[in-house]
Amino acid sequence: MSPVPLLALPGAPSLAAVGLGPYLVVGAALFSAGLVTVLARRNAVAILIGIELMLNAANLNLVAFDRFGPGLVRGQVFALFVLVIAAAEAAVALAIVLNVFDSRDRVDVDQVRSLKG
Amino acid sequence: MLSLLVFTPIAGLLACWVLPARHARAINLVTCAAALVLSVVVWQRMDAAALGSLANPLAERAAWIPPVGIEYYLAIDGVSLALVLLTTFVAFVSAIASWRVEKLERGYHMMFLLLLTGMLGVFLAEDLFLFYIFWEVMLLPMYFLIGIWGGPRRQYAAIKFFLYTLAGSVLLLAAIILVVLKNPGEGGRLVWAIDHYTALAASGHALLESGLAGLAFVFMFIGFAIKVPCWPFHTWLPDAHVEAPTPISMILAGVLLKMGGYGLIRIAYPFFPATAMDLSTWVAAISVIAIVYGAFVAMGQTDFKRLIAYSSVSHMGFVTLGLASGTDEGLNGAMYMMLAHGTISAMLFMVVGVIYDRAHHRDLDRFGGLAWTMPRYAMFGSFAFFASLGLPGMSGFIAEFTTFLGAFAGVDRWAAFVALLGVVLTAAYYLITLQKVYLGDTPAVYKDPKHYPDLTAREVAVLAPLALVTLYMGLVPSTAMDLYMDVARGLTRTLAQAASGFPGLGLG
Amino acid sequence: MLTVALAILAAPLVGFVLQYAWGPRLWRQGDWLTLLAIGVSLVGSGVVLADVWGGATYRWTWEWFTPGAVGSALSIGIAIDGLTAVMLCVVSLVAFLVHLFSMGYMHGDPKYPLFFAWLQMFSFSMLVLVLAGNLLHLFMGWELVGLCSYKLIGFWSERPAPANAARKAFLTTRIGDLGMMVALMAIYAAVGSFEFDRIFEAVEQRAFDDPWLMLAGLGLFAAAVGKSAQLPLHVWLPDAMEGPTPVSALIHAATMVAAGVYLVGRMVPLLSPEVLAVIAVIGAVTALMAGLIALAQDDIKKVLAYSTVSQLGYMFLGLGVGAWHAGLFHLTTHAFFKALMFLGSGSVIHACHHEQDMRKMGGLLRRLPVTGGTFAVGVLAIAGAPFLSGFYSKDAILSGAWNRFPLLFWIGLAAAVLTAFYMTRLYVLTFLGRPRDEHVHAHAHEGGLSMTLPLLVLAVLSVVAGWPFLGWDAALLAPPTHLRVEGVATVGDLHFEHDGTVMVLAIAAGLVGLVAGYAVFGRLAHRLDALKAPFRGLERAFARKFWFDELYREVVLRPAYGLAAWFTATDQRGVDGVVNAVGRGGTRGARVSAFVDRVVVDGLVRLTGAVCQFLGAGVSLLQSGRVRLYLGVSVGALAVILLLEGLS
Amino acid sequence: MDLGPLLPAVLLTLGILGVIVTDLLGRGRRPAVPVTLALAALAAAAVAALGIPTGDGLVLGVLRADAFGVVFAVFCCGVGFVSILATLRGEALRTPGGEFLTLVLSAVLGMVMLAMSADLVMLYLAFELVSIPSYVLVGMRRADPRANEASLKYVLFGAVSSGAMLYGLSWIVGLCGTTSLDGLGAALANGAASEPAFVVASVLVFAGFAFKISAVPFHFWAPDVYAGAPAAVAGFLAVASKAAGFAGLVRVVAATLPSVPALGDPLGGLLPEGGPLIRAMAVGALLTMTFGNLGALRQREIKRLLAWSSIAHAGYLLLALCVWSPDAMAALVLYLVAYLFMNLAAFLIAGIVIRELGTGDLAALGGLGRRHPGLGLALAVVLFSLTGLPPFFGFVAKYSVFYAVLAKGYVWLAVIGLVNGVISLYYYARVLSFLYLAEPAEERTLRLGWPDRGLLAALVLPVVVFGVAFWGDLLEWARRVGPAVFGGG
Question: Does residue D295 lie in a domain region?
């Protein structure tokens, strides 16, 4: 069943015509952006955002593959699960971050290094 | 019977644990005496045939881990019997010497008995896995005995001893597994019995193909050489001896060093006869270095105990020299040196212990003229010194002489000549020490008999038996030699066949 | 016969054990017990001598242990033949007399009983050596003798000097013994047994051939050089004079040093011609050199010590040139008169309250008539005066040399002159002339009967032993049958008839030495210092000399003294210096190698530990606590793994 | 399609719900009820798991209840049970609150699912179900800044690595078109394996599992987290989550390995051949062993030392895994069982020591061997067993691993492993030297309550007993369970 083009803008290429390639590229870009944010930012919340980006990149991949794959909807089911888990993880992570940084003025991960050696 | 012998010390250990601490030393002594009596009983029950091979009525074999084919297999032949007798005798004498240990008495005697079980187990185990278990069980008590009851640098010495020996035994384990893996028994079941592989190798069947065989032999050789100790792997011995308490030094020198030699004669050489003979020049080289280098370094020592430790390194060089020659006389000399050195070095360490208990230091340059204040002590001391430098009439001479006969008739004749130099050096450093400690004018501090009494009855009870055995073994060597010669001749036959085209004079 | 032999051995052993254990508590501290024990051996030796006179030989062997293959059993055993009988008598007789002498000499010494114990042990070891039926058994006796000499030389080891001398003696002889070990190994490798006759048969049937034969021969001779203090291993003998004088008499005159000669004598069939030549040369050179050094010594015992070295050189010369009978004959006679002179010197030293320097003595003949008289007999005997024992044995050796190596003959002759010369010097300085030290002279008095009796007995023996018509030497010292084997020991007929010219020359040499000695030291005694002076300031002295003295001094004295001084110097700084240097170097080298062992070999072990610690530090340093660093490193490592995967 | 195999999961879920309800109702007045309920749930789940008929069939298409899965289910329930008991006496809360119990139960539930999973989605779900509760468990003691810091590091590190794993999984799902492990195998066989993308994906998946089993280069979190977390929780993580991680990794490797062509081997015979995942694991194994042992050499605090030692043991386990033979699998299972007893005992003792002496650094341990012989002896036995010395269970485990490695002929790999064992002796014996050889810091003798001694004995006895006897049936059992992963019950 071919998908119905949502945006009937003239000249806009229909989703089907675009093919799998670009989605994977965007997915990869999203993943690497998330990775870079995780490594570059000192703010704990920013790191969590980065992690979310990585998870969504995986979601994008899953959905894209499913769309262009044999279409057993497995990928999308997987993506749904990932969304739920990502939410849970974010909640827990934020709770921990809150707990750690309520006594400190700045949410700076580098200040937290008493455990070492 | 053999199981009874191996696990009697465990019974003693439990008794020590249960009964109050002050009985511990008595229990220890009684158990060691029992072990000695048991070993003599075993000796009486072994006829000439039993001495010659492991398959005799005394062997005890039971399945232990069926899926892997490991058996609880104890057996005894001439070689094991000789070393078991040495072990129980030196242990008994050391138990007497341990009479005055006060610190954590119960723990000491329990560890002592655990050590005795480990040693007896090594000499009697005929299953490679069981052998390895006893080989490592023996390390635990030694670590604590040196570590807790030792001298000032005891922790360093204890951990160095443990690490060094463990590294060796790890290589040994790898080699054992390789051998077992590559020669499965019928139906793919693994075989662990030592005599199975000895027979296999003797019949000319190579246990491992040449490349791997070389590797396995070198691993095994290093594992055992650390215990002997051969020249490059000897540096743990001086530290361990200097820091260990006197009775433990006696056991360490008297028995533990023989396990390396025993391992080479029971496992390494019979399993890989061809490789052993190919590498005999290397083995001869390190033994000669051990003899001459050990003697030379001993001459430079100022600590009495460290000097005797290096003299042990030098004397154990004869064991590997005898082995490397691959002749009947060489093997005989190697075995005899193990027995002779066992009693003599135990006596030497007791001699050091006696003076250390009184002077609380071991610096040779501060001693002097003890012969005049402690004549009986000087008598035993000089007896031990002359026995050790190989004066005829004592076991040391027979051992060195037979080894020289073997080495000279063997493949590496040059080694015999260089080793001769060691004989003179040994005489030199012993006489220098004798003069420093016993002769010359007596410094004031050693004069009053209150602080420096002559030997007590207990000390004589330790030294006298050792001296008598050394003298007996010097005058009547045939009793000891008849024990292990059949096995030794068997091994030399295998080595000769394996070398095929034995370049020597074709003797023996 | 076996019981007698065993009795000879057992007596001193039992004596030693009893004396060592209970000596101090016995009556007279046990000296009578030990004397009795050695007496038994003496009587036993006599019985053996009588039995063997006719040429009978005995041999008993007991299997000892099997070192190698089933058949190769080594044995110990007793063998008795002419040579053994002679040696037995010499050893037990001299031992007995020394025991007797020591009762007087050592009287009052705190360790009196211990001395006699070790004398017993020494006699036992010597008898074991002599009675040994095979080379291994002999070697055991050989080393035990070394031990006893260590104990006896170092008897007064409260003082460092005797202790050092004892150690040096043991170590130098031990170096020699290495040669014996090599010989034993070579013989075992070639013959498989140490029985004398088995070895000689193997040599005969060429089974035992070069190079092992040569090696064995040289090895045995090396041991003999060590034990009999020949060049270059002679350095220990002069130092061994630190021991009590009876010890010197017993060990360094009659028995232990003679063991080397006995060994070479016993093993002659084994020695190939080249080895015999080496023995002869070394014997001759040692004889000459030791004689020269003896000339320059002032300590009475040192002179005798070097004289012994010289006489032993003679014996080896005899054996080397094939005069087997002569060498051993001289061994016997020398034992008597050298023991006599040592005991004499002991008596002198005892009299002068342990004064050993001859320059402080002089004119003692009047104070010590018996010692002086017997000593004179000794001097005459060793100088080779006719009708005394020394003449016959030395003459036999010289005639042997004359037949084989004329060059060695002349060296031997020169040595003979020197012997006479320094012996006379000793006698004159000690007994004749005016006493130079009133204090020493006043108190000198003759020892008791225990000291004088041995001197008399030995004096008689020194005279009688040599007479040919007694014929004991012919009966007992018949050369062994294997000796006449052509090719190996091409020795030809070993029984030389006394060559006329040789006899004349020998007598002349002896007389010249005696007369010159007496002339220089007797008549010119008062000018002695002047005589020695030129040797230091040669030009100044020339002006003041009479014509006769100058000639005499120029022709004989100065070269003799020059050579003597030079030899003494080389001896002290040369060979002895080398030995001491090796000793000092040894200990310093040992310190260095002990350091090397601790730093290098042990260092490597500690290095591996340190490397692990260093890496451990690295790993835990990486654990800096900062999360972002962790993430960075992990992702980086991930990238590296990806790269690795991509590559392969 | 019966739901039998799901029984353990159901029981655990009921347990969680029960604990929450009783804790709410009881409002903390009667704390014993939720604890007993939690323990009961764990015990029931373990018993139920044992009862499951082990077949090769799939349950709900996502779980495979084979012998391998059952063993791990029982294993994780057991660890959970012991960890709860340990917290009763350990340094953590006096009486663990409801939240702690629910978190432990849910983590155990996740582990059971992970061990049995046969589908990538279930795999990831279970993976996260184990991780998320663990993050909170580490940070339970909110007042303690060290615990907070530990949980922060744990959550950040965990999230990043699971994110990377997920991205890898997405690619694998994409390439193979299915999420079921069996389907994966088939897809890889016909060509999917050669795609470069697959190589990258498999390495990323390895990153996720490497974090879970604390293998180098994803080990950084372990030392800090174990030091910060309470000893009992650290023990739980060190044993349970590591075991679950290995179970998951085994499932993935079992599915992918057969069909992946062996790549060339740059290191020439040192490393086992096999797909990119195997090679990555092999390098990981070598690095983990060495880093773990070296890191532990200089530690001065007992929990941190045990952390590094658990990294080293992860290395040995990974070594067995990457050799990938029936013997190796049996060795893996056996090693994990031994590891359970040894490590839990070690962490329990650490907890007790920290509770009694107030600090974990080794200097304070002075003369403990004399002040409390029982505790000293137990620690000595455990440490010698961790080193792998004969009369103890640790030796049997290590022997079987190296036997498997040598059986495949990797001699030098085995030697490196064995030498690592020797290095480990140094720091284990160092602890003992503080215990016995050093002079006692203070003379106060230590008294332990009944439950401590009971729990300690329960953990230490098997280490000694299995070291000496019962090897036959142990090896037999392991050989039956391990290879089950290859399919066929």
Answer: no
